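ABC transporter permease: structure, please.
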Amino acid sequence: MTAYLLNRLITGLATLLVASLVVFAVLEVLPGDPARLMLGMNATPDAVEALREQMGLNQPVPLRYLDWIGGMLSLDLGKSYTYSVPVLDLVKERVAVSLPLAVIALVLSVAIAIPVGAFAAQRRGRAGDTLSMGAAQIGVAVPNFWFALILIYIFAVWLRLVPAGGFPGWSAGVWPALKALILPAIALALPQAAILARVTRSSLVEVLGEDFIRTARAKGLPFDRVLWRHALRNALIPVVTIVGLQFSFLLAGTIIIENVFYLPGLGRLIFQAITQRDLIVVESVVMLLVASVIVVNLLVDLSYAVVDPRLRAR
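Here you go.
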């Protein structure tokens, strides 16, 4: 177990190092002067040179990389040129929207997908299986922003149950804030639930063909008990993998949904920083999101040892 954990930790750190090199290199090879891009083509040479000095662009590339990594490790992400505030303050403000949104969407996705996948596996080859997987295929094919527009029309415009967009802030109360996140969370959850339901169904169908399942059935155990208490746990590893990937996607890939619902989250922050050429924000926030993806995947790898006892002996 210790060797397994150590191996996963080393792999995660190595991946994080490579990711930092890629993020830094991509912004380095972009054509044009970053300072001039941020200030605009009409900026004076003195203003451009002052911003280059402020951003450390006059230093050698390896030194800039080391300074950037050192700042990330000390949580000094620099100062946004557009907002004139530390990037860390922007991240703290926006993650209070994106993180709850991702968690709610993931919970909804799992709550929908596991029962649907188990229902389809239990009725393999029958009408229930066909209808469930047909609906899941539609969910995979339809983009989440289309679901978002439909949900806005039905629940915000027609029924007027929830707001169509915006975020009142947690200071306005938990319920008003959650109401603003319900529709975007559902729009994010439906395509992910469709993917997870198909994976759950496939994994369960494979496990239900194993010898220990036939033995359990031969002993007279009800099929529902065999399915939920024996088969499902053994089918969880691919399901847990997808759940981890989905949480990473939901946390880092909400740009479209946050813009549709006008939510002040991390996705919208990245979009605004790109359009405003605020490269300091782009570089820092992208690296933080990469780090969060790697940490989540590391936690998923560690959870395998909980799901599969055979890994504990390694």
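Notes: Residues 87-313 form a domain with the MetI-like fold fold (CATH 1.10.3720.10).
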